[in-house]
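Hello Y.,

Per our agreement to keep a running log of every chain we model this quarter, I'm adding this entry. I've kept the format consistent with earlier entries: sequence first, then predicted structure.
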Amino acid sequence: PQLGQLEHLQQLWLGKNKITSMAIPPLPALRHLSLQNNRLETWDASFFVNASGLTHLYLGHNNLPDLPEDFVKLTSLVELDLAKNALTKIKPMPELVGLQELWMNDNQIDDLEEVKHLSSYPALKTVYLERNPMHGLGTEEREEKYKAAILAAVPNLGQLDAVRLGEKIKIISDGTEQRVMGIRKR
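Predicted structure for the entry above:
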């Protein structure tokens, strides 16, 4: 059958296929779509109408530019992977009320002021923005500014990059307990 005939299709995994267009036929039941590691360089306006019920969208490792206005039509998104693309901005989209995970690491975002737009996502729990030019990787002062700016925008964030925030771990050594805020490799 043709893809458009699969009206009950809920998941579609098309990673690593050298796909150059994200145009798909109407798929009203589609909830999970992966187009990771393809050759996408432009947004297709029909995509946002034909896949408007998506809850999980994985577009990492392409060369997509900044998000178009039509992106707000994906109001059911819970998880969005845009890692390793050509994004330069964090688009505020308050319409995405259920978005919990946002992966935008390894893009071209160079202005730390962009992180203030994260506050437009009320359900956000996890953010990956590391290795963007604004991150300041390797410079402790810049990394602290990066973290502080993100936490100012999303004070209830549970995870920033690969670090869980606010979790306490009990370590028992030599028979005594100690409380630590977290463990991170340096």
